[in-house]
Amino acid sequence: MNSTAQDAEDSSAPAIPAIPLAFTDQNDTPGFQEGLISPELAQWIRFRAEKLKLRLDDRKWAAELVNHLRDSLLEFLKKSDDQPYFQLARVLNSGSYYEMVKIHNANEFDIMLTFPPPSRLNWTELGQYQGLFYQVSLCRPTHSPIRSFLLEDGLTISASKFISEMYLLVRRFIRTYKVSDNSCHWVVNRKRVNSPAVTLSLLEVGNGKQELLSVDVVPALEVSSKQGWPQAARAGPDVDHWLGKKAKRALISQNCFFVPKRPPGRNLDDIAKEGWRISFSHIEKQIISSHGNKKTCCESAATKCCRKQCLKLLKCLIEGLKQRYTKELDALCSYHGKTAFLHTLSTRAEDSLWARRQLPVCFMHLLGALEGHARSGLLPHFFIPNANLFAQPTFPRKALVFLTNALEEQRTHGLPLLMPPAPAPPMEICSPYETQPLQYPDLQKTSPVENVSNKMLFFVAVAVVVFVCLVACWKHMAN
DNA sequence: TTTCATGTATAGACTGT
DNA sequence: AACAGTCTATACATGAA
Description:
By secondary structure, the chain is α+β, with helices and mostly antiparallel strands. It has two domains: 157 residues, Poly(a)-polymerase, middle domain, CATH 1.10.1410; 228 residues, 2-Layer Sandwich (Beta Polymerase, domain 2), CATH 3.30.460.90. Helices cover 39% and strands 13% of the residues. It contains 14 helices and nine strands. Strands 1, 2, 3, 4, 5, 6, 7, 8 and 9 form a nine-stranded mixed beta sheet that branches. α1 runs antiparallel to α14 and α9 packs across α11. The N terminus is likely disordered. The chain binds a DNA duplex through α3.
């Protein structure tokens, strides 16, 4: 009976695998041995990857709202005389949506607003951050409107002034900006002290609780490629054997950015409080979109690879872990996953290793790689090899040990966090997948479109169950 | 496999200095 | 007239269905 109801909703759903599925640590790659993935688990991984796709309707709905907001904001800044420097803003879409690795819903967008400095920049590494954070200043005094963001020395660009002014203008913009159909409205979220973003949320009118979309607007200072990247990143990412030396040169010859994010920690000195963080978002996006060892990767059905799917699954697992162990894994974020992913791609370069069919094996490999980084406490920033994203105190020792164990548990117990909730009781009607929001309440923020389809599915499931019951009764009576 | 919508890169037109 | 910056049309890539 249960399976009938399930099948009615999702005929492609594989059977729930027997748990635990043995993964042992015998291999030198932590947590990975090819032969040990059971066919059931492999099927589940494929199935889960399918489920992470964004729906076209959702994308269309969200893209229209976000693009209109973005274009209107840009127009507002261009016309604004209050802060003439912001008239120079240019848009650079970044983050997982535009990298095509956003999962579950098209509900989070990252938009960088980039600004060219009036002259060459000087930057000084802030100590103890291994080249991630910088004091940024102009080489010479200027009459450019950027003046209003400078400190008393007339040269140093103040990150706090920059982001505060951005807030001011975005708030001013939002006061008059209306969503076309009036059913929702954008609000500016509260300022967060360590965040470089002005975060906007789209709320339903009359239901202030439910956030339908969120957009991070991140201002960024552009460093001309003529100046080159800071010393800590000068060597460029380790992609020689993967993307090739020529591709690497092309990457290094691009601009990089500073975003107004101060370094973590309390009791910062006055210089650190005005610190900027280096950003390679646009390069990351480029690498992820042209990710092949050969040019032909993903060009045809025959050369399709599973790299992006692996990253999506890892992001899903990380979200799940953070949901399940909120406090313990506070320090963990999706960027750790992305970094481990990039390292894995650069060492496991050959396209054939990432063939579409190999998804389960590749994902387990990636998971093992992240576990390995956690176990060794070493996860170098992909562009700044000396910056360890698992270094303390940013990533506390305790959290690292917890993460190592959590990842090991996932690997050795058949990925319970990627699985549906425990086997359903006999009369359960809904398919396990549809009940997923119960397990991870915030992972899936339902859009209006989704609500409709959920109701439809539920209705169909109930109808099928009733029908099957009737048939069973009828047969019983006939006997 | 195909069809479609969205996102991106590019060239050439346009505009103001 | 020359130039840089901006806008626009177009083709192409990507991924969902």
